[in-house]
């Protein structure tokens, strides 16, 4: 973390192997969630309150390597943290403790980040398959939709519809 006024470092957390951190950090429930290290990612939950200097040993609340994403960003809904690894394994964590509520192999490859709308979590694969899951501590699949076209971009819920960009189309799905 850096001071925005002058760029002076406030705190830092060390991580192991890897480079090119892609997923955006997410802040919720007093914790900062980030996945670092492109080759071997680790998901970190960091309490930034009062952190200074090297905060690795003092402010990392929990970590997870299994299911940590290389590319998709994380999603927090209430107390749940939803992630999908690039290889199609989705996991729901308790954001405060790191306890795994559920893990589900969705199949396919994932670059897009999960999104939340109307009580549902949407996971969009690179193969054009959208998995719709009920938000919650138990896995419940609601629908699987295949547009049969490559997609890399994250879905955008807006104005009662979902917007999706695929290889050759811009889609608006809704009433």
What are its keywords?
mainly beta, 175 residues, globular, single chain, 4-stranded antiparallel beta sheet, 17 strands, 43% strand
Q: Summary?
A:
By secondary structure, the protein is mainly beta.
Could you walk me through the main structural features you see in this protein, from its secondary elements to its overall organization?
By secondary structure, this protein is mainly β. It is 2% helix and 43% strand. The protein contains 1 helix and 17 strands. The strands form 5 sheets. A 4-stranded antiparallel β-sheet has the order 2-3-4-6. Strands 7-8-9-10 form a 4-stranded antiparallel β-sheet, with no helix packed on it. Strands 11-12-13-14 form a 4-stranded antiparallel β-sheet, with no helix packed on it. The longest helix is centred in the first third of the chain and has 4 residues, at 56-59. The chain is globular, with a radius of gyration of 17 Å. The model has no long low-confidence stretch (mean pLDDT 94).
Structural class: mainly beta
Give the CA-CA distance, first to last residue. 43 Å
Overall geometry comes to globular
Largest sheet: 4 strands, antiparallel
Q: What is the subunit organization of this protein?
A: single chain
**Which residues form runs of ≥5 with pLDDT under 50?**
none
Spatial order of strands in the largest sheet:
2-3-4-6
Rg calc:
17 Å
Task: Give the SSE string.
Answer: EEEEEHEEEEEEEEEEEE
Number of helices: 1
Helix content: under 10%
> What is the percentage of strand-forming residues?
35-45%
Query: Number of DSSP strands?
Result: 17
Q: Please, what is the average pLDDT?
A: 94
């Amino acid at each position: 973390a850096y001071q925005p006024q002058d760029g002076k470092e406030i705190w830092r957390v060390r991580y192991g192997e890897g480079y090119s951190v892609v997923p955006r950090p997410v802040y919720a429930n007093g914790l900062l969630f980030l996945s670092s290290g492109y080759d071997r990612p680790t998901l970190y939950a960091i309490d930034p309150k009062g952190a200074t200097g090297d905060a690795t040993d003092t402010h990392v609340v929990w970590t997870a390597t299994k299911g940590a994403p290389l590319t998709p960003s994380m999603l927090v809904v209430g107390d749940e943290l939803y992630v999908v690894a690039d290889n199609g394994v989705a996991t729901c964590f308790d954001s405060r403790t790191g306890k795994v509520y559920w893990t589900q192999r969705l199949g396919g490859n994932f670059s897009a980040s999960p999104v939340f709308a109307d009580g549902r979590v949407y996971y969009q694969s690179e193969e054009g398959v959208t998995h719709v899951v009920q938000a919650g501590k138990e896995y419940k699949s609601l629908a699987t939709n295949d547009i049969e076209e490559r997609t890399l971009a994250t879905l955008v819920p807006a104005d009662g519809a979902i917007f999706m960009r695929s290889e050759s189309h811009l889609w608006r799905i809704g009433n």
